[in-house]
Amino acid sequence: MGEHVRAGDLDIWTEQVGEGPDVLLIGGLGDTVESWQFQLDGLADRYRMTAFDNRGAGRTAMPEGPASAAVMADDAAAVLRALDVPSAHVAGFSMGSAIAQELAVRHPELVRSLVLNSTYARPDALFRSQLDFWRWLPEAAPSGRAFFEAFFTWVYTPRAHADGSVAGIVEEALNFAHGQSTGAFQAQVDVCREHDTTDRLPQIAAPTLVLAGEFDVILPPRFGHAVADAIPGARFEVLPGEAHQPFQEIPDKWNARVDAFWQEVEARN
């Protein structure tokens, strides 16, 4: 069971399970703790796993005023400090990877290692146009179902659409008791649009693994490759046949890969 953790001036919904070295999971646009369920279930026998709802998602409010990846990184740092976690292996996905980058730059003492999945340093012209489209999509969609069905065409593989996985995810989203408001969704889209760590990535000293889906149409591998090139010593790997959210579509393989990376980092210290 999760609980609200007081982090600065914000109550952030947090779930922590398992025992072992600490891991912090940072979700993407609109994602909540539940998006990491395969990791919370699959890795808690080896790690103490912490996930939370970013500001503006799930059970965490979106305060007045502008949001940014830097502000949300400070939220993540406040969660770790509120839970007395001295440092953690940090895994961030999409918008969460932008937050994780900022966390590593702004609070390096809290970051033991970084896994950046479906990541980018700043949006190019095409990605900015996609984000602009997403921003007005919830206002234009004729129903919540139509919004999710349209949005998820960008997110999951043809395989997941064909085997019914996406249909199930749509139903879960529609039935979720803490759905995201249009305003909060748009605020998070703006966070994604304004993210830019291009000139600061070389400051990251934590061991870093960058993962990209071969067929990710939102953030193709070229984005992750550029991030890995900019972070000293970072590794870059492409997941064959995968799209934007492999941690949900192939959780066993994804968990095994990040576990091997974390074990390697642990062995060095």
Automatic annotation (TrEMBL):
It holds the Pfam family Abhydrolase_1. InterPro entries: AB_hydrolase (IPR050471), AB_hydrolase_1 (IPR000073), AB_hydrolase_fold (IPR029058). The lineage of its organism: Bacteria, Bacillati, Actinomycetota, Rubrobacteria, Rubrobacterales. GO terms for molecular function: triacylglycerol lipase activity. SUPFAM superfamilies: alpha/beta-Hydrolases. Keywords: Hydrolase. The keyword Phosphoprotein does not apply. This is Alpha/beta fold hydrolase. Residues 23-246 form the AB hydrolase-1 domain. GO terms for biological process: glycerolipid catabolic process. It comes from the Bacteria.
